[in-house]
From TrEMBL:
Keyword Cell inner membrane (UniProt): no
Gene3D superfamilies cross-referenced by the UniProt entry: Leucine-rich Repeat Variant (1.25.10.10)
Transmembrane region(s): none
The name this protein goes by in its record: LisH domain-containing protein
Length: 1129
C-alpha cells in the first residue's frame, strides 16, 4: 500500500483515511534496499550530533484527539518516495497551523534532545500569548471532523493569563473532547513537566549570575599579585572559602564538636551554615569531608576518557507499522495519584516562580542602590567648593565604610516601604534567632548586636515618633561596649545610609546629639566612633552646622583627647570638613587647627595632617583665592620669626613643622599655577596626549597630594604640562599672575631664609634640601634651570664674594651659611642627566677650592658631603670631586680633600674604599707637605673603625705605623696630637686585636715620651689628648696581658705628668690605676670574671662623681683644657 503524506491532506481527508484502518502499512519490501535512513531524510542529525532518541511509547495526543505523535508523523513522512520528502520546518508549520499543540511540543522536545532547535517552535512555545484562553466555547467533535478548523486565536475577547502552566492548560481545555480521564491527566502532567523545566531553567540562570558575581569577588590587588608572581599560590576565592566553611561546620556537628561548631560559626558570622544555597546557588553540594578524604587518593578519570553517550533508534531501521500500530500505553497510576502529582508539580512551580521573582527583585534593588549612592552624593549636596570629582572621591575614601558583606549590604540600604521592611526582616531574622538562642558568650552577644544594626536603623528611619527614634539611635550608639574596627565601620555605614535617607534636618536633630553624648566617653573606641562619624556625616549636614557645631566638637577632641588613634581620626574628619566648608570666616580657625595638629606629639596624627587635612585645607583656600596670598605667606612669616628669635638657639622642631607644611602645599600650588595659566583654555583632551613620566613628580604622601587628583585626571594634567613647558620655553611668564608670584616673591623670600640658616644645623639643612628638591621636581626642569638657579649665586660669584667678604672669624660669609649645601643637595640633584651631574661636580670642586684658598671653615662643604653621602648614588660623584682635590696643585686644597675622605668613608662600601679611597690616601700620605700627610690620619683612623677586610686593615696599619716609627716624624707635635686624638675616637669601636696590639702600645710609648718633653706647652697638649684617649679606652674590655704591659704603664706615665700639671686629676688617675691593679690581682685568682671594664667600677661613689665632673670639664675646649693643666705656682 502506497504511503500517504498526511501533511498534504485536509482534515476531512485525514478522517476518511483513518476510518477503514487505524494503522498505516508502512512495512518495507525487499526492494526498499538495506535498512537505514533514506538518503534525504530531513530528520537525520548531522554527523557530529548525537542521534535523536525516539519515544516509542508516547501516548500524547493532539488537541483534536488524533493519536498521531511527532514520531508517527515523521515516520509517515519518510515512508514515501524521495520526491515526497518534507523539511522539518514544514512539518512544524503544519502541526502549528492545524493546532496539534502537544504533538508540536513533543516534536520540539525531541528536536532539542537531538541538538537541533527549530526557531519556529522555539518562538511559538516561548510566547505566552499563544496560550491565552479564548472566551468562546470549544468546538464540537463533529464540527472538527467535517469542516476546516478555524483559527482559534482570532475569536472572542482575551483574558489575561494567570500563570504559565495554568494558562497553558486552560488554552487546551476547549479542544479536549476525549472522555479518557487518564489521557487528560497525562496531558496535564506533560504540560506541567514542561512548565517546571522552563521555570527551573530561569531560576538556574539567575543563580548562575549571582554565583558568578560571588566568584568574581577576588580582590583586584590579590589578582594582580598572583599574575605578577605565578610561583605564589593562587588566593582562595570567596565561593571556595564558603564551601569549605560549610563542610567543616557540617563535620563538627556530625562528630559532636558542638562548642567548636558554635565558635566556628561566630568567627564566620557572614555565612549561614543552615542552608547550602547560602554558599552558591547553582553549585551542587559536594560530599562531606570524610567522603572527600576517602576519595582523595582515588585517581579521577581523565576528561579524554569520558564521553556522553545516548542511544537512539534510526527512523530507517524501524518496521513500517511499529509506530502506527502502537496502542496508547495504559497508565499505572490511578486518577487520584495523578491528581496528587499534578498538585505537587504546580506547588513546585509556584515556589520556583516566587524564588525567581525574589531573586530578580533583589538584583534590581542592588543595582538601584548602587546607582542611588553614586548619584546621591552629587545631587544631594550642591557644594560651593568646586572640588574635582577625583579629589572628592579620594577625600571621602578616608571615611571607613563597610558594604562588601551581607550585613554591610543590609546596613547600607534602608528599607523605604512596608514591603521592603518585610523583606528585610525575612533576610535578617534567620541570622538573629540562632544567636539569641546561643547568646551565652560575649562574642555571640557582640555578633547578635551586629545583626541588630539594620533593624534598628530601619526602624529609626521609618518610625513616626521622634522620642522612639531618639531612643533607637541611642541604642545604636551604645549597642556595643567597645566596638572594633569592623563594627565601627558597620555603624558608620548605617549612619550614612540613615543620613542619606532622612535628609540634613533630621541628621542634625537626631544623629548629632548622639555623637555629642559620646564625646567624653571613657572608652576610646566610643570616642573614635564619634570622631569618624563627624567626617562620614559631613556631606549630609547643613552647611551652618558643618562650620560651627561639628567643627567645635572636633576641635575640642583634638585638644583634649589623650588617645592617639582618636586624634588621628579627628584630623581626618577635620580634613573632610574642610573639603565641604564654605564659610570664609572659618579660614583662621582652620589655619590654627592645622598648626595645632602639626605640633601633635604622635607621628600618626602628624601623618594624617599631611595626608588629609593640609590637602583639603589647601583645596578650600584655592577656592577662596588665599592659597598663595595668605596661607603660604603666613607660614613663611612664622619661619622668619623663628629664625629671628633663634639667634642663640633655633627651635628646630617648630622649623620642621612649618617647613613640612610648606612642603605639603607644593602640589596644590603647582595645580593653581596650571589652572590659572594663560593656556588653560587651550588644553584639549582629544588627540595623542603622551603619558606622564613616572618620575615626573615626587611620590605623593597620599592620593590627595597627587597633582593629577587635584587637577581631575592624568589626561588633563598631561595636556596642561605640554602647554606649561612650551609656555616657559618660548613665551615666558607675562600675564601669569600665580607663577609671577612664585618667581618674584616666594623664591626670593626662600633664598633669604636659607641665607640666615647656620650650616651646622644639620636638621635645618636636611629639611630645606628636601623642600627645594620637591619644589624643583614639581615645577619641572625648565622652571628649575631658568628661574630657580638664577637666585643662587654661580660658582664664580661665590669665589669673588669669598675673596672680598668672607670673614672666617665672624662666620657671616655666604659660604659659612646653608646656601651652599642646600643649593648642591636640593637644587642640583633634582635631575640626574649627565649635564646635571657635571654641573654638580663642578660646583663642589669650585666650593672646595674657594674655601681652601680662603682659609674659610669647611662646614658648608662638609654639610654637602654628609647630605649627598647618605645616598649611595652620589658616592662615585663625590670620589670624583675628592680626586680633583688630591691632584690639585695647592697644598691647601689637598689638605681639604684628605679631611673630606673622613666623612665619606663611613657610608661607602668596602670595595670603593679599597679601590678609590685608600689609594688616594696613600698618595696624600706621601705628599711633600707635612700638613697634607697629617690631614690623612683621621681618614685612616675611620677606615680602621669601619672596615673589616684584613688586607685593607693591614695596609692602613702599616701607614699609621710609619707615621709613629719613622724618625722624620719624631718631633712632629701636630702629627702626634692628631694620632692621639684619632686613637681616642676610633679605639673603642675598632677591632680588639688592632686596639690591643697597636693602639694601646703606641699610646704607652707616647705617654712615656711625653714625660721627657722639654716644652711645657707641648707637654700640656699631649697630656690633654692622652687623658681623653685613656678615658675613652677605659670603657673597653682589655686583656690581662695588655693591661699589665701597656695600659697600666701608660696610665702611670700620664699620672706622672698630672702630678706636676694638675694634682686634682692625679687623684682620678690614681683611683683608675688602683682599680686596674685590683682587677689584675682578682684575675690571677679566678678567671671567671672575664675582661674588665674600668670606667664602670671606680672606687666609691665620690670618686665616680669627681671623675665624671672632671671629664665634663675636660671636654669643653682646647684653651680651657690647657688652663686646667697649668702648673700651680
Amino acid at each position: 500500500m502506497a504511503s500517504v503524506n498526511p501533511f498534504n491532506l485536509s482534515d476531512s481527508e485525514e478522517e476518511a483515511e483513518r476510518r477503514p484502518n487505524d494503522t498505516v502499512d508502512t512495512e518495507r519490501s525487499p526492494s526498499d534496499g538495506a535498512p537505514g535512513p533514506p538518503p534525504g531524510n530531513p530528520f537525520s542529525p548531522p554527523a557530529d550530533a548525537e542521534p535523536p532518541t525516539l519515544l516509542l511509547s508516547s501516548n500524547r495526543t493532539s488537541p483534536s484527539g488524533e493519536g498521531m505523535s511527532a514520531s508517527a508523523a515523521a515516520t509517515s513522512a519518510m515512508a514515501g518516495s524521495s520526491e515526497a520528502r518534507v523539511s522539518v520546518d514544514t512539518i512544524a508549520a503544519q502541526l502549528l497551523r492545524d493546532q496539534y499543540i502537544l504533538t508540536a511540543l513533543e516534536f520540539h522536545t525531541e528536536l532539542l534532545e537531538a541538538g537541533r532547535e527549530l526557531p519556529r517552535l522555539r518562538d511559538y512555545f516561548s510566547n505566552p500569548g499563544n496560550f491565552e484562553r479564548q472566551s468562546g466555547t470549544p468546538p464540537a467533535k463533529d464540527q472538527a471532523a467535517g469542516n476546516k478548523r478555524q483559527d482559534w486565536t482570532t475569536g472572542g475577547s482575551l483574558q489575561p493569563d494567570r500563570a504559565g502552566s495554568i494558562s497553558t492548560l486552560d488554552s487546551l481545555d476547549f479542544a479536549r473532547y476525549s472522555d479518557d480521564g487518564n489521557r487528560e491527566s497525562d496531558e496535564r502532567v506533560a504540560v506541567l513537566e514542561f512548565e517546571l523545566r522552563k521555570a527551573k531553567e530561569t531560576i538556574q540562570a539567575l543563580r548562575a549570575n549571582l554565583t558568578q558575581a560571588a566568584e568574581s569577588e577576588v580582590p583586584s590587588q590579590e589578582r594582580k599579585n598572583f599574575k605578577s608572581s605565578p610561583e605564589v599560590q593562587e588566593p582562595i576565592r570567596p565561593l571556595e572559602k564558603r564551601a569549605l566553611n560549610f563542610l567543616v561546620n557540617e563535620y563538627l556537628l556530625k562528630n559532636e564538636y558542638k562548642l567548636s561548631s558554635i565558635t566556628f560559626s561566630d568567627e564566620n558570622d557572614d555565612q549561614d551554615f543552615e542552608l547550602w544555597d547560602d554558599v552558591g546557588l547553582n553549585i551542587p553540594k559536594p560530599p562531606d569531608l570524610l567522603q572527600l578524604y576517602r576519595n582523595c587518593g582515588s585517581p579521577l578519570p581523565s576528561p579524554r576518557d569520558v564521553a556522553d553517550v545516548s542511544v537512539g533508534v534510526d527512523f530507517g531501521d524501524l518496521p513500517g507499522n511499529c509506530i502506527a500500530q502502537e496502542t496508547p500505553r495504559k497508565l499505572d497510576l490511578t486518577q487520584q495519584q495523578q491528581t496528587e502529582v499534578v498538585q505537587e508539580l504546580e506547588y513546585q512551580i509556584s515556589l520556583l516562580n516566587n524564588e525567581k521573582q525574589s531573586l530578580a527583585e533583589q538584583i534590581k534593588k542592588l543595582q538601584r542602590c548602587v546607582c542611588a549612592y553614586i548619584s546621591g552624593l552629587a545631587e544631594e549636596q550642591r557644594l560651593k567648593v568646586k572640588l574635582s570629582p577625583a579629589f572628592q572621591q579620594a577625600l571621602l575614601s578616608f571615611c571607613r565604610m563597610c558594604s562588601d558583606s551581607r550585613l554591610g549590604a543590609e546596613v547600607s540600604r534602608i528599607a523605604d516601604s512596608e514591603e521592603s521592611v518585610m523583606l528585610m526582616l525575612g533576610r535578617c531574622l534567620p541570622h538573629i534567632v540562632p544567636n539569641v538562642l546561643l547568646a551565652k558568650r560575649e562574642r555571640m552577644v557582640t555578633h547578635l548586636c551586629q545583626e541588630l544594626i539594620p533593624l534598628i536603623l530601619c526602624t529609626a528611619c521609618l518610625h513616626p515618633e521622634p522620642k522612639e527614634r531618639d531612643q533607637l539611635l541611642h541604642i545604636l550608639f551604645n549597642l556595643i561596649k567597645r566596638p572594633d574596627d569592623e563594627q565601627r565601620q558597620m555603624i558608620l555605614t548605617g549612619c550614612v545610609a540613615f543620613a542619606r535617607h532622612v535628609g540634613p534636618t533630621r541628621v542634625e536633630a537626631e544623629l548629632l546629639p548622639q555623637c555629642w553624648e559620646q564625646i567624653n566617653h571613657k572608652y576610646p573606641e566610643r570616642r573614635l566612633l564619634v570622631a569618624e562619624s563627624c567626617g562620614a556625616l559631613a556631606p549630609y549636614l547643613p552647611k551652618e552646622i558643618r562650620s560651627s557645631l561639628v567643627l567645635s566638637m572636633l576641635q575640642q577632641m583634638l585638644t583634649e583627647d589623650k588617645a592617639d588613634m582618636v586624634r588621628e581620626a579627628v584630623v581626618k574628619s577635620l580634613g573632610i570638613i574642610m573639603g565641604y566648608i564654605d564659610d570664609p570666616d572659618k579660614y583662621s580657625q582652620g589655619f590654627e587647627l592645622m598648626l595645632l595638629s602639626l605640633g601633635d606629639p604622635s607621628e600618626r596624627v602628624v601623618s594624617a595632617v599631611h595626608q588629609v587635612f593640609i590637602p583639603a585645607f589647601a583645596a578650600w583656600t584655592t577656592e577662596l583665592g588665599t592659597l598663595y596670598t595668605a596661607l603660604i605667606p603666613s607660614l613663611l612669616a612664622r619661619i622668619e620669626k623663628l629664625l629671628t628669635q633663634g639667634e642663640h638657639g633655633l627651635d628646630e622642631h617648630k622649623l620642621h613643622i612649618f617647613l613640612s607644611a610648606l612642603q605639603s602645599l607644593i602640589p596644590p600650588l603647582f595645580a593653581v599655577v596650571l589652572q590659572n595659566a594663560p593656556f588653560t583654555s587651550r588644553a584639549k583632551l582629544h588627540g595623542d596626549i603622551p603619558a606622564i613620566e613616572v618620575t615626573r613628580f615626587p611620590r605623593p604622601a597620599s592620593p590627595l597630594q597627587d597633582v593629577a587628583t587635584i587637577i581631575g585626571s592624568r589626561e588633563m594634567l598631561s595636556a596642561l604640562l605640554l602647554l606649561y613647558d612650551h609656555q616657559l620655553e618660548h613665551e615666558g611668564t607675562t600675564g601669569w599672575e600665580s607663577l609671577l608670584w612664585v618667581v618674584n616673591q616666594l623664591l626670593p623670600q626662600l633664598i633669604e631664609i636659607v641665607g640666615r640658616i647656620n650650616v651646622t644645623s644639620t636638621t635645618c639643612v636636611h629639611e630645606f634640601s628636601r623642600f627645594f628638591w620637591r619644589f624643583c621636581r614639581t615645577f619641572g626642569k625648565i622652571f628649575t634651570n631658568t628661574k630657580v638657579k638664577f637666585f643662587f649665586p654661580p660658582p664664580h660669584q661665590i669665589m669673588c664674594s669669598t675673596h672680598h667678604s668672607v670673614d672666617a672669624s665672624a662666620g657671616n660669609g655666604i659660604l659659612t651659611k646653608a646656601t651652599v649645601p642646600i643649593y648642591a643637595t636640593g637644587v642640583l640633584t633634582c635631575y640626574n642627566q649627565e649635564e646635571d651631574r657635571k654641573l654638580l661636580v663642578g660646583f663642589l670642586e669650585d666650593v672646595m677650592t674657594t674655601l681652601s684658598l680662603s682659609h674659610a671653615p669647611l662646614d658648608s662643604l662638609k654639610a654637602s658631603f654628609v647630605e649627598l653621602g647618605a645616598n649611595p648614588v652620589y658616592h662615585e660623584l663625590l670620589l670624583t670631586v675628592l680626586w680633583y682635590g688630591v691632584v690639585h696643585t695647592s697644598a691647601l686644597v689637598r689638605c681639604t680633600a684628605a679631611r673630606m675622605f673622613e666623612l665619606l668613608v663611613k657610608g661607602v662600601n668596602e670595595t670603593l674604599v679599597a679601590q678609590r679611597v685608600v689609594p688616594a690616601l696613600i698618595t696624600l700620605s706621601s705628599d711633600p707637605e707635612i700638613s697634607v700627610r697629617i690631614s690623612t690620619i683621621p681618614a685612616f683612623g675611620t677606615i680602621m673603625e669601619t672596615v673589616t677586610q684584613k688586607e685593607l686593615l693591614e695596609r692602613v696599619k702599616m701607614q699609621l705605623a710609619s707615621f709613629l716609627e719613622d724618625p722624620q716624624y719624631q718631633d712632629q707635635h701636630s702629627l702626634h696630637m692628631e694620632i692621639i686624638r684619632t686613637f681616642g675616637r676610633v679605639g673603642p669601636n675598632a677591632e680588639p686585636r688592632f686596639r690591643d696590639e697597636f693602639v694601646l702600645p703606641h699610646l704607652h710609648k707616647l705617654a712615656l715620651a711625653n714625660n721627657s718633653q722639654a716644652a711645657e706647652s707641648k707637654r700640656i697638649d699631649i697630656a690633654t689628648q692622652l687623658f681623653e684617649a685613656y678615658s675613652a679606652l677605659s670603657c673597653c674590655f682589655i686583656s690581662e696581658e695588655v693591661m699589665v704591659n701597656h695600659f697600666l704603664p701608660g696610665l702611670r706615665c700620664l699620672r706622672a705628668d698630672m702630678e706636676q700639671l694638675s694634682p686634682e686629676h692625679e687623684v682620678i688617675l690614681s683611683s683608675m690605676i688602683k682599680e686596674c691593679e685590683i682587677k689584675v690581682e682578682n684575675r690571677g685568682m679566678s678567671d671567671a670574671q672575664g675582661s674588665m671594664s674600668i670606667a664602670s667600677s671606680l672606687v666609691g661613689e665620690d670618686a665616680k662623681t669627681k671623675f665624671l665632673s672632671k671629664m665634663g670639664q675636660l671636654t669643653t675646649s682646647g684653651a680651657m683644657l690647657a688652663n686646667v693643666f697649668q702648673r700651680k705656682k
